[in-house]
Design brief:
The protein is built from six helices and twelve strands. With 290 residues, the chain is an alpha/beta fold. It has an eight-stranded mixed sheet. It has a two-stranded antiparallel ribbon with strand order 5-9. A two-stranded antiparallel sheet has the order 6-8. It is globular, with a radius of gyration of 17 Å. It starts with a strand and ends with a helix.
Length: 290
């Protein structure tokens, strides 16, 4: 298997007291150190923040001209993280049959991804591309009054959430060492975003969570299968599934995160290995190497 070239990139400049790419270091390390069954390095990983807001990013604005096989885009901005040129080139990147993983957070965080076509439109926000289902346009997390919907309460940062697999089991969720054939846990977050299968794509929900506040079911991940519209893509409900802090709260968080953390990612035996497996599965599937 050839080495797969992956770009991990946020939609904000490098700000120490924010969700900059430095806070996804464990993900980068996991992929860089992963070996295929023959013991070879599987992934070459570049991890970057974007350049100045409001200006074309030197990588994203020519992404289709690079040799990257896939982009993991962490949309941590307030709606201004991508320029039209960035979006156009990312779209051309996917149209060239390359892979995208696009994730955001609560309310309108990351809403700049709406310029990315189908994988962007898989994300519903508070004021943009609002979910047509009114039952999902209500506050779910009662513990953060300053954060409105979508804000599904999967648990505390640092805790694990047990997920529901939407059959059939998708390859990114496969765990051949599990009795169920699938992973059981993803990291929890107190206010996850809203994702759904977009129109016009060969797309479906593959995993759901359950709110610990209201018992509501909500979508965690949507896959867009390769088609004439472009390469494989995943829309993920929150970038916190991939953060250092949500894997191990001892690694720290920005100062504006004040809610007490949990420790389920350390106490639940399978939790950390499950998110590690999920990330590797995603990386392989986006490169169509599974």
């Amino acid at each position: 298997m050839r080495t797969i070239h992956i770009l991990l990139q946020t939609t904000i400049p490098p700000i120490a007291d924010d969700w900059s790419i430095a806070r996804f270091s464990r993900l980068a390390e996991l992929l860089r150190t992963y070996r295929d069954p023959q013991g070879r390095v599987a992934f070459n990983v570049v991890a970057l923040d974007r350049e100045r807001l409001g200006q074309q990013d030197s990588i994203l604005s020519r992404l289709d001209e690079t040799d990257f096989d896939e982009l993991w885009l962490f949309a941590v901005d307030e709606g201004d993280g991508l320029t039209p040129q960035d979006c156009a080139r990312i779209t051309r990147f996917r149209q060239a049959a390359r892979g995208l993983m696009v994730t955001r957070d609560h309310m309108d965080v990351g809403s700049s991804v709406l310029g990315l076509g189908g994988v962007g439109m898989a994300h519903h926000f508070h004021t943009r591309n609002v979910d047509p289902d009114p039952s999902r346009c209500v506050c779910d997390d009662p513990f953060s009054p300053n954060i409105s919907w979508p804000n599904f309460h999967a648990g505390a940062n640092g805790d694990a959430q047990e997920i529901t697999i939407v059959e059939p089991v998708h390859p990114v969720l496969a765990d051949h060492d599990s009795s169920t054939g699938a992973i059981r846990f993803l990291p929890a977050h107190p206010h996850e975003g809203d994702v759904a299968a977009p129109d016009g794509e060969n797309a479906r929900v593959i995993a759901q969570g359950k709110s610990k506040a209201t018992g509501r079911r909500f979508n965690l991940a949507v896959v867009l299968e390769p088609s004439i519209r472009g390469g494989p893509a995943i829309a993920q409900s929150t970038f916190h599934h991939f953060c250092d802090y949500n894997w191990d709260t001892r690694l720290g968080c920005p100062s504006f995160v004040t809610k007490p953390p949990g420790n389920g990612m350390q106490t639940e035996r399978q939790a950390l290995s499950n998110i590690h497996l999920y990330c590797v599965n995603v990386a392989l599937w986006l490169a169509r190497a599974t």
